[in-house]
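Let us work through a complete example step by step.
Step 1: write down the sequence.
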Amino acid sequence: GAIICAQYLGSNQKEKANQALKQLIFSITLISILITLPCILFRRPLLSLIFGSVEKNVMDNSLSYLFITALSYPFIALYNAGAASFRTSQNSRLPMAIAFGSNILNILGNIFFIFTLNLGVAGAALSTLLSRISSAAIILILLKQPKQDLYIDSYLSIRPEIETITKILKIGIPTGIENGMFQFGKLVIQSTVSTMGTTAIAAQAMVAMLESFACQASIGIGLGMMTVVGKCVGAKEYEQARHYTILLTKYAWIACFICCAMILFPIKQITSLAGMEAESAKLAIWLTRIVFTYKMIFWIPSFLPGYGLRAAGDVKFSMITSTLSMWICRVVVTIFLVHTFHMGPIAVWIGMGADWTIRSFIFLARFKSNKWLEHKVI
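Step 2: predict the structure and record it as tokens.
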């Protein structure tokens, strides 16, 4: 939806951009509710399907946590829609400030609900729910200010427009499938990791968390790229779209190098601060050095060009490439190496490295071909 808004703004159609924002709010509210209901109603079979047989206490806590956090799905969806619209309006500081405040509220809520009221897992879920409600409420209120490029004059006046919703879904559904398959693949890998010993599980969890942290600056640049490239494509400035995709990819590469270095050099101190056992810490340090060295080379070209492709409307190619690469490399390779050669957590990262490598060459070839600029969104 934000891509469509950006392209309308790039073509100086502000009224249509605001109308698209209304349809984005309507669509995302409806879709998030439709996702929330089955997550609540079928939470027990869903958890049993993913994690199998677990202790009763663990399952009870999981059911409680999923029920409460599922109620927050429409609110996190609305916040993300609002945040995307502000970034499209070149105001990324406001979503950052709201997210920062929400995290502080979440931390304080955890302290109150868990340690003061002794609500345990339910307390953690309640804190998450309240922080997401507050984020959505704040950003929806601020969206009503007419001084910005994108705003909503009245939420009560929103009515569905099939043509605009169809445009949103043409981009949103492939992107959603891509992200959904990615998360589902991570669950499959996590289920495989759970069969390893506690040392391997602890080391894998630490490396996965650090690897995710090292991506955040580059992902932020990627989100900015979608706005910039979307406006360029909307204005039919295709050379500018290419230029900014290349430029921002370079910036993201620099950011990735810096973030990886910030973790690689003090990795021993990080594992010590986390209170890891000696054997788990040793394995985590070894894995981090291997993974981050490879990540600094191949992670950026495997992800950043994809943001530019999506901004131009080339979402089906991105979906097919990412999904196939994810399942063939990450999932199949990981499971094969774990169960056939008993390689432990390094198998996860061999599969992921293969995914990054193959996806890099495919995305770069697509970008060079200029076929991604042939799509018509608006």
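Step 3: interpret the result. Residues 23 and 165 are 6 Å apart (CA to CA).
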